[in-house]
Amino acid sequence: MSTTPSRGMWSSRAGFILAAAGSAVGLGNIWGFPTQVGQGGGAAFVVVYLACILLICAPIMAGEIALGRRTRLSPVGSFAALAPGTRWWLAGGLGVLAGVGILSFYSVIAGWAVAYVWFTATGAVTGSPEDIGRFFAEFTGNGVLSAGLALFVIVTTAAVLLGGVRAGIERVTKALMPLLVLLMIGLAVRAVTLPGAGAGLAYYLSPDLTRLADITVFTSALGQAFFSLSLGMGCILTYGSYFPRQDGIASSALWIVALDTSIALLAGFIIFPVGFSIAGFDPTTSGPGLIFTVLPRLFAELPGGQLFGGGFFLLLSVAALTSTISLLEVPVSHCVDALRWSRTKAVCAVAALIFVLSIPSALGNGAVALFTAVPGFGIGFLDLMVNAWNEFALPIGGCLTAIFIGRIWGVGGALDELRAEGAWFPAPALWTFLIRWICPAAIALILLVTLASML
Ligand code: PFF
């Protein structure tokens, strides 16, 4: 299949790895992972999460890249090209919807991170843990401000996308990700030496296996793994469509998985020691505000804390931006490929739609808990969005992708692509077994048991 002329190409394998890792590393690692570990009961969640990454997500990651590279199309086109005349294109369509849906709440949290650059750098969030918590509640209670910040994030993302694939995405990612990792390592070293840090490390690292009886641990770990790796919605597939044919897919996929997982684990080494150093801290009840209420405590303990705090939230905002870019890329490249829109028109139209959809999440976290009157929905709208997209849409998309690769496209075709030009591909028999059996069955089982437990 030929390459669409307007399609960019990554300059190198390293460029692809950095850009895909830029997509993967974002709020999911630093905001989402600790929040989910907190709510999911600590180390037991971490164990299930790592199992999901290795057995389910890593094989799907390689498959998604191969699918994108073989067809050189965005998700809907990829599925349609390899299974013409069927409804498989709908699996790609789900990804396009997920891109829009996820970005609608992601932009709100990213907007908070942007605001905290200012708040921490100017020393506005200091004082007792109660003061810091109250500050966050008041800030997010102002829905108009949250919506304005989300708009800022969406407009910035749209501006970067209009710069083109290589120029826009690669440049930003290459420069700043190493800095984020270094700063996080420094913060983790300080965090684990705080008084009370031991209890945090125990919560994070010694699993309470009785938690494994709770299906929600599996559902949220699976959803978080897909979300963190940007899988199950054709994002990595779309990035794979710009991947040069002479480069190896398996080694790139492993790099992305390893980088993303290490950064998520590192975030836990910061949040839990600091959290447990605060008297009365309860990780299970912190919700989406966890990092915003815990981290300022750490910055208060550091000499030059305002500088570190501002720097941290700045780098987090950039990490979030490289993820929002990839989220917006999925619906935009769909409109360009399928509807033949110009890139500018697609970016502007999709960004405007996402802003409108972000408004309920901006309003629905703090003071205005929507749906409180509906039984089972006594949570903020934002939580509802996180659960719906991460825990259902992405795993469903991942399950469909695995079935498609394993049984419709066929592992033969996929393996040809994975091993093109003699590329290194370890254990093809294991990969085949995982993609054909384990991935679809495990995801389906977790989703079905979850649905049954909700009835
Ligand atoms: N992986 C990103 C994060 O962890 O923040 C979020 C994300 C980006 C999810 C792109 C899905 C996606 F397609």
Task: Write a structural description.
By secondary structure, the protein is mainly alpha-helical. The protein has one domain (5-454): Amino acid/polyamine transporter I. 76% of the residues lie in helices and 0% in strands. It is built from 17 helices and no strands. The protein has helices at residues 13-24, 27-39, 43-71, 75-82, 89-121, 129-141, 143-162, 165-191, 197-205, 215-228, 235-240, 249-276, 290-301, 305-339, 343-363, 381-418, 428-454. The protein is globular. It starts with 12 loop residues before the first helix and ends with a helix. 4-fluoro-L-phenylalanine is lined by residues 23-24, 26-29, 102, 227-228, 230, 233, 235, 323, 326-327. The site of 4-fluoro-L-phenylalanine has 15 residues, from helix 1, helix 2, helix 10 and helix 14.
